[in-house]
Design goal:
11 helices; globular
Length: about 280
């Protein structure tokens, strides 16, 4: 009976689903053609032989004492690049957050509307932040490698610029979405922006701000690894060299280190949230 009932009452939305599937396929095909997607190259005998050799070595991580010392040194440099870059980003993001957050605007007190000059300055700051975060850190790293040469300096500057735009944008959004009563009371009673931020907004949003900052530190660690492939120093540069030499065991060891670094960042984030919660 159930089968007959299902046959008598077909799915009324089947035409929409079929149409959506056909439209997706029609849109996907030119994209695959433009990207020159050729998965059959993976089954080329020469490619399969190279991949098998790399993967068989990859399953046996390198554990030589000299190599492990090198990995630890480069790991420390990777963490240093990420931390230094994020610190510089914070030095720019915190003032930018105070500038673009509308709730910290003193000119809108009472009337609820900002003065035209304040609105213009705030919009210009937003455009600068859009520019900073629109350019990927890898592109910034390529530019700085040409300017300052190979090494970690390029990675630090690339992270600082990109993450300054990201942090300021998200910080402002977090502050705008939090409870504004304490913040507006302080501003209305003559408090400056910085005290209002520290005592009016941070107690409400501290856990979320810290969580996002630690997440960005985790992203900076991964980003510094990627930037190493263009000569910005750190563990990524060593991984690029090992990959070129098809040294799967060395690549495997360095990937394990990256997993441990990300796990460490996640643990730090949980501890800080618990402390502030």
């Amino acid at each position: 009976m159930a089968a007959l009932k299902g046959a008598a009452h077909p799915d009324p939305a089947w035409r929409g689903r079929v149409t959506a599937t056909v439209v997706c396929l029609l849109l996907l095909w030119p994209m695959l053609t433009a990207s020159e997607f050729k998965p059959w190259l993976l089954f080329d005998p020469q490619s399969l032989a190279a991949a098998w050799g790399f993967l068989s070595d990859f399953l046996h991580p390198a554990t030589g004492a000299e190599f492990l010392v090198l990995v630890l040194r480069e790991t420390w440099q990777t963490v240093a690049i990420a931390t230094a870059g994020l610190t510089l980003a914070l030095l720019g993001a915190i003032p930018a957050t105070m500038l673009i957050t509308e709730r910290l605007s003193i000119s809108r007190l009472g009337t609820g509307r900002m003065r035209p000059l304040a609105m213009l300055v705030r919009q210009l700051a937003r455009w600068v932040l859009v520019l900073l975060r629109s350019v990927p850190e890898l592109v910034w790293a390529l530019l700085f490698v040409r300017i300052v040469g190979l090494g970690p300096t390029a990675g630090v500057l690339a992270i600082a610029l990109t993450y300054c735009g990201m942090l300021a944008k998200v910080y402002a959004e977090i502050l705008e979405s939090s409870d504004a009563h304490a913040l507006e009371s302080l501003l209305a009673n003559g408090s400056g922006r910085l005290p209002a931020l520290l005592y009016g907004a941070l107690p409400e949003s501290a856990a979320e701000l810290v969580s996002y900052t630690v997440y960005r530190w985790e992203c900076a660690i991964r980003g510094s690894a990627v930037m190493g492939f263009v000569g910005a120093g750190g563990l990524g540069q060593r991984m690029e060299e090992s990959t070129k030499m098809m040294a799967g065991g060395e690549v495997s060891t360095m990937l394990i280190v990256f997993v441990l670094l990300v796990a460490l960042a996640d643990l730090v984030s949980k501890l800080l949230r618990r402390r502030l919660g």
